[in-house]
Amino acid sequence: MTNDAPGKIHRSGSANWSISSDVLDYAKSLIPPNGRTLETGSGHSTIFFAQQGYRHTAITPSQDEVDRIKAYCASNGIDMGRVDFMVEPSETAMPRFEDAIDFFLIDGGHGFPVPQIDWYYGSKRLKVGGVIGIDDIHTWTGKILVDFLKRDPSWTQLETIDLKTAFFRLNKPFVYQEWDEQPFVRRKSKQIIFGRKVRRFGRRLVRGQWGGLVRSFLRSRK
Ligand SMILES: C[S@@+](CC[C@H](N)C(=O)[O-])C[C@H]1O[C@@H](n2cnc3c(N)ncnc32)[C@H](O)[C@@H]1O
To answer: 170 C-alpha to center of ligand 1: Å?
Structure first.
């Protein structure tokens, strides 16, 4: 059976924000048959996951998107029996999602800190060896997540497709670490701390605060 194109699913049927088929094909190559999958956001990707027969959950605040996806699948013979939806923003839904997952597509809200919230709760549920895909890494919130993961030894970077979607594999059970144990945050923070020292030194110099200058010089030699 040849399916119709799903058409516009987003913004009440007036927009198509679908992820590329290259991304979905690559995701498929990483997911075991019968895999347990999760995505934030919904659309063409949800239809694709349903077609593969994965046990899939999509989290979106839009009931309209869910209705369009279900209508498309019903009229094209796509079984949605293994797909469910959490119809609410991921920042409230993710803490309640408890299944162990093989793959997680982060493509919901892109405002700060929603991708970070998705990543945090999703990583807690990701099996070791499981993969996350982060879409729209040209937005700052996506890019900062990628920069963080690139330097974290718990993750291995896989492909990045079209400079837009990055994939990472989890190497060991996810644990939250304090800032000074997170290589990216530690490095960025050290730059900020150094910059603050330089500015404070300059300010004391300009103000002739010699006592403070001597004290910080002595401290720096300890
Ligand atoms: C770029 S689209 C997803 C495209 C989809 N992956 C596809 O292939 O068609 C972004 C999605 O995020 C949803 N969204 C917006 N804010 C959200 C939030 N706070 N939590 C979860 N989903 C959100 C939108 O309703 C939309 O479904």
So the answer is: 23
Cα 172 from Cα 218, distance rounded (Å): 43
Residue 80: Cβ-neighbour burial (10 angstroms; 0-12, 13-18, 19+): middle
Distance in angstroms (rounded) separating the CA atoms of residues 60 and 77: 23
Concatenated DSSP letters of the chain? -PPPP----BTTTTB--PPPHHHHHHHHHHSPTT-EEEEES-SHHHHHHHHHT-EEEEEES-HHHHHHHHHHHHHTT---TTEEEEES-HHHHGGG----EEEEEE-S--STTHHHHHHHHHHHHEEEEEEEEEE-TTSHHHHHHHHHHHT-TTEEEEEEETTTEEEEEE-S------GGGSHHHHHHHHHHHHHHHHHHHHHHHHHT-HHHHHHHHHHHT-
Instruction: Please tell me whether the overall predicted TM-score, pTM, comes out greater than 0.90 for this model.
Output: yes
Q: Which atom of ligand 1 is nearest to the CA of 89?
A: 20
* Ligand 1 probe mutation, 72, 90, 138, most atoms within 8 A of CB: 90
pLDDT digits (tens, 9 = 90+) for 62-117: 999 999 999 999 999 999 999 999 999 999 999 999 999 999 999 999 999 999 99
